[in-house]
Structures are given as structure tokens and as C-alpha cells.
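Field reference: sequence -> structure
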Amino acid sequence: MSASGLTKWAYPLAESLLAEPLPRRWKHSLGVAERAKTIALILGEDAELLEAAAVLHDIGYSPDLAKTGFHPMDGARYLRDNTEADVRVIRLVAHHSCAWMEAEARGLREELESEFPRERPHLADALCYCDMNTTPDGTPTNPVDRVNEIAGRYGSDSLIGTFIRRAEPEILASTARVLERVAAAKRQPM
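Structure field:
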């Protein structure tokens, strides 16, 4: 699939998996894709790739795809096994927003990393930035409020609550790296 066709393919696929069974998750995914558009200037030829990964990142929550209960892996496996998705999109979905830490907590880290090598750090940072700066309803937020919302929704002692607190320093660092690249890009003469 060509890079120019990624978003034309990704949006309807994500919508078909999320819009009806999980409308709030669909709104979140659309918001994450909108955040991806706002940082396109630092992504160059990878801008569409990131936008496609952004709209697809949570498809593993779809009741039709949920097999392990670990949505990054379920979504990536679906893309790998049932579509002609770009391998980089699959890797980004598999590893979005510090997924390796949650995989570790679930005893799935080795499985995740053996099936899906990590994508380039600047793209992983970019997807984390987009996800962690978007509310469950798809509106902009900041990563501190987003982490607090996730911990509050799942409970601080839950697997997700513990994971997100453990991941918080890396989430904040990813966001800072993206914002630094955006600021540097804006300082460059046209």
C-alpha cells in the first residue's frame, strides 16, 4: 500500500471496528489522528504514516478483535494477519504509548517484542504525544491530566493504573521531545 493511500484505508477500517461498538473510543481515535496532523511539520514523509497509526492505534479494543485483553497486541495482530497494512503502522499500533510496560505487567513483553519490533523512536514519541494529549472524547488535553484521567478511570491499584503511573515519566519525556522538535522546526527558515 502506498503512503498516500494509508489514511484513505485507515479511517474507514478504524471506523468499521470502533464507531458502533465503542463510539467514545472512536472519538478518541479521531482526536489522536487530529493531533497527528498538528505535528506533521516534524514528520516529513512519515506524516501520513503517523496519522494512519493514530486513527488505528486503539482498534484492539474492538469486541471483534479483543483476544488477549491487551489492545496494542490485539490490534497489531489483526492488522498483520487480516490486512495489507504497512509494517511500520503495525509496529506503531503494537507499541503505542509505552505499551511495552503494560505488556511486561501482563507477562506479554517477550511475546510483544518478538512479534513486533519497535518502530523508530521519533515516530513512537510522536504517537505517544498524540495519544496522551487527547481525551477519551477526542478533545485536546495535556499528558499530566490524561495520565490522571486514566489512573482515575481504572483505579490506581489496577494493572492499568499501576502501568500508567510507571509510564508517566516516559510519556512526559516523549511529549517534551516532540514539542522540542516542533519548536525547532518552527524556528527553521522556510
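Note: The longest helix spans residues 159-187.
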